[in-house]
Task: inverse folding
């Protein structure tokens, strides 16, 4: 019976075998994978998965030719990877700014600018004469139809239209004076 100190610790002989018989082939394995599977991404993952599989196989049974077995396993892993990439292609992204945005929320700066513009718009509306202000608020902010405003206020539709135009022009002038350019006109 051997003493515990003379027996190798569990896994030591497998570790030595791996370091001596498998790991030295990594450079040639990587070259082989790059030349055989030029479209495959994540070759580092292929190598690591191959190491894991060969490690597990060695635990179950002896391997006669570590290099041949390693290359065979790596080939199967790379083929699986290429098949998955064809089924569900995922493209590597190097420039995140060029990606289309799915969630188009404004940034903090945009929100702050919008708040400032709203405050200025409120101030611009406050500078309008009372009747003009009432008509602009009803038509532009609340979306009340011109005909309904005319009926509600007992004035002609033409008067509503003129007051809205005057009010909008005055608001635009106020905003321009305070550094806010008008939005582009719709055709």
Result:
């Amino acid at each position: 019976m051997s003493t515990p100190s003379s027996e190798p610790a569990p896994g030591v002989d497998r570790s030595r075998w791996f370091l001596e018989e498998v790991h030295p082939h990594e450079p040639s394995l990587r070259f082989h994978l790059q030349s055989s599977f030029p479209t495959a991404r994540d070759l580092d993952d292929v190598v690591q998965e191959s190491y894991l599989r060969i490690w597990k196989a060695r635990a179950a049974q002896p391997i006669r030719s570590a290099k041949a077995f390693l290359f065979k396993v790596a080939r199967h892993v790379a083929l699986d990877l290429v098949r998955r990439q064809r089924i569900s292609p995922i493209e590597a992204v190097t420039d995140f700014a060029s990606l289309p945005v799915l969630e188009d929320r404004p940034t903090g700066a945009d929100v702050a600018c919008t708040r400032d513009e709203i405050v200025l718009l409120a101030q611009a509306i406050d500078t309008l004469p009372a009747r003009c202000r009432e008509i602009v608020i009803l038509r532009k902010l609340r979306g009340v139809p011109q005909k309904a405003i005319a009926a509600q206020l007992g004035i002609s539709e033409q008067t509503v239209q003129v007051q809205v135009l005057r009010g909008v022009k005055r608001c635009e002038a106020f905003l321009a004076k305070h550094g806010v350019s008008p939005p582009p006109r719709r055709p």
Remarks:
- The radius of gyration is 37 Å.
- The chain has eight helices and no strands.
- Confidence is low (pLDDT under 50) at residues 1-9.
- Helices lie at 12-22, 26-36, 43-60, 66-87, 108-126, 130-141, 146-153, 157-177.
